């Protein structure tokens, strides 16, 4: 009987591994439409491709499948939500940089940091100048890198406001994380300008309520990798912060007039499992109400 149980466990484990390997390479395009009266006429139909959590994963040689999917969206701009690399001492960041170099030849790219980039930044005694060199390479190829700052994304006539929020380490803690208050966000980022449609790149989706209170119209987040394993009618099972069945796992959410689009991300790192949870390219179309 024990032999049968062990054999069944080995077969199940092998099947899960093969299914996960297949899922990790099976890209999915998710399309969203965000409607707002605050959008200028010139941004009616504006398309954003949102990428996050690549973790140096590759889809075909030099990410050709990923680039082809992005090209198929014909975006006006590409917004990057962070964690495109893996913060390990022995890791190469060339996969992420090569993708940014190739995309920057075609599109305007705006890049915000996730917890992996910020770990490099905050721990120079471990990683040396890896963060500074990485950001330098991004800027060399024309990527607009944002760190706790805002920029006006213009169409030539009008503009929307894009802000990147770098969260503190305490907001990424696996146990007992400390949410940022709207006052802390204002101290860090300044006030959201109510005259402009406000997009916020905030890697961790846990704090959507605080982002909404700060004054954003659209939040773009990642970090949770879709909950790793997704169950029908249940959703994601576990977040990187070991939250079981997290409130926010993937898709579109709304609080008041604020909308959050939470991508399942493109890769993973320590636990490379995805089941019923395809890597995501988010294509977002803005529509004026």
From TrEMBL:
Keywords: Hydrolase, Metal-binding. InterPro entries: Calcineurin-like_PHP, Metallo-depent_PP-like, Metallophosphoesterase_sf. Pfam families: Metallophos. The keyword rRNA-binding does not apply. Residues 47-226 form the Calcineurin-like phosphoesterase domain. PANTHER family: PHOSPHODIESTERASE YAEI, TRANSMEMBRANE PROTEIN WITH METALLOPHOSPHOESTERASE DOMAIN-RELATED. This is Metallophosphoesterase. It comes from Anaerostipes hominis.
